Amino acid sequence: MSASYQPAEILADAGVSDSPSHWVDGRSWVPEKTSRVDVEDPATGRVFAAVAAGGPDEVDFAAVAAHAAYHNVWAPMPPARRGALLQLLAGRLLDEQEPIARLESLDTGKPLSQARGDVAVAARYFAYFGEAADKLSGETFWAERADLSYTVREPYGVVAQIIPWNSPITQLARGVAPALAAGNTVVVKPSELAPISPLVLGRLIREVGIPDGVYNVITGLGDIAGAALTAHPLVRQITFTGSVQTGKRVLASSAEHLAHCTLELGGKSPTLVFDDADVPAAARAAAAALIRNAGQSCSATTRILVHESVHDQLLDAVITRVSGLKLGPGLTDPDLGPLVSERQLNRVLQLIGTATAEGARIVVGGGRAEGEGIVDGYFCEPTVLVDVTNDMTVARQEIFGPVQSVLRFSDEEEALAMANDSAYGLSSAVFTRDFARAHRLARLLQSGQVHINEYPLDSVETPFGGYKESGIGREKGLQALAGYTQLKTVLARVAAASD
């Protein structure tokens, strides 16, 4: 893919304009008078589109449409039919993989090969949950006073999906697919930093025959459109992925009308590398945390805790891998793309400066990237920090950039204490050839996922979510369906009651 490929062509190939409207009730829609939010290409810093800025009125229009579709067509539809439509959607996503990937790469800055993978994963979500739609079941059980007792799982109704900017198409599919499979309808609020691929999905949803109003998108700012959506009384379930601070506001808003809430928030995921570990495999994991989305991933393992006996060996391997990474615009398919915005770049650079001020030492990178093809845009050098201790800001705060911290430990007890000494608990990893140690630590680590001897190992089928401030609820896997359904218990008297 040539770097000279024009944004207008990318938008046109994906079937969207440079001034896209909201998607409501099966059509593009925007009020006559509306303001717009500029969308930048993070590789150049240039505006390539401007989306409609929704507010309470637009959110209300979408919520009402979703509410009507839920009651009139989607919830009453046989689950097998719902599932078949979602599987058709998976196929259409694969048909459109290349234009959507190019759009996603332009919008987020991620390398094109990563964007292609994201579209394929999004398709897998719709296929997986489409296959599961007619397999939701309850249970029968004995009850002291009833002759027959059983449970059924029923959808909530209108679901709000507030998605982040780092992987819009996969983050959307991760929540929308199980929500629709369970019989809910959705209103999506994408990030204003990367809002366009959810609008493209609206066209594909209409093409496969999913009824109007089942899927709706309102673009705009989080503190206006997002706030209006979480507060809307027709919204019965909210799924939010983002920062802890914003997640707490979403949870407070949901409490006002007692909507169920699923929150996937921050992470500071530790990887524990023991003296008997496969060090090259651990080094790959440490480098991959910087490569995937330029480190802009909530589950990135950005605390590498290394036994002192293999510390230098691991560090040398990480330095070798990170030093050779190629940076560039996502559409040129480099190893590493830009950060999503100038604000994010400045934040990452500031945190690197704080780390050195607190005693950490930079062994790779550490500054704003320069060089051929990256004169403009928001590029950060992939950075490795050593002499990091667990009380430093860089070890405690989510960086959300290509910054890796390497820490030492002396024994298993110390490693476990360091790993769990965090406000977060999203994911973790253990590298060791000792089977007993690996599974002992898997029980003791305070995180929603534990990966052993490779990171990451999760997939569409594996439940995902955090402990502590990393969130509430689980996404992915069949467990996700529990978050989009409510349990009803039915108790019956079959025989006539005796006197």
CATH topology of the largest domain: Aldehyde Dehydrogenase, Chain A, domain 1
- Global morphology: globular
How many strands, which pairing sense, and closed or not: the largest β-sheet?
A: 7 strands, mixed
Strand order of the largest sheet: 13-14-15-12-11-17-18
Structural class: alpha/beta
Give me the CATH architecture of the largest domain, please: 3-Layer(aba) Sandwich
Q: Unreliable stretches, pLDDT < 50, 5 or more residues?
A: none
Question: Roughly what fraction of the amino acids lie in strands?
Answer: 15-25%
* Strands, count: 21
Query: Mind telling me the C-alpha Rg?
Result: 24 Å
Number of domains: 2
Given this structure, which CATH class of the largest domain is correct?
Alpha Beta
Oligomer: single chain
Number of helices: 16
Cα separation of the termini = 82 Å
**Secondary structure: helix percent:** 25-40%
* Overall pLDDT level: 96
CATH fourth-tier homologous superfamily of the largest domain: Aldehyde Dehydrogenase, Chain A, domain 1
Give a description of the structure:
The longest helix has 21 residues, at 112-132. With 499 residues, the chain is of the alpha/beta class. Helix 5 runs parallel beside helix 6 (168-181). It folds into 2 domains: 7-265 and 475-485, Aldehyde Dehydrogenase, Chain A, domain 1 (3-Layer(aba) Sandwich); 270-459, 3-Layer(aba) Sandwich (Aldehyde Dehydrogenase, Chain A, domain 2), CATH 3.40.309. The strands form 6 sheets. The chain has a 7-stranded mixed β-sheet with strand order 13-14-15-12-11-17-18, with helices on both faces. The chain has helices at 7-13, 56-74, 79-95, 97-108, 112-132, 168-181, 197-208, 222-231, 244-256, 279-291, 311-323, 342-357, 393-396, 412-420, 435-444, 479-483, and strands spanning 22-24, 27-29, 36-41, 46-52, 148-155, 158-162, 185-189, 215-217, 235-241, 260-264, 270-273, 303-307, 361-364, 383-386, 403-409, 424-425, 427-431, 449-452, 467-468, 471-472, 485-492.
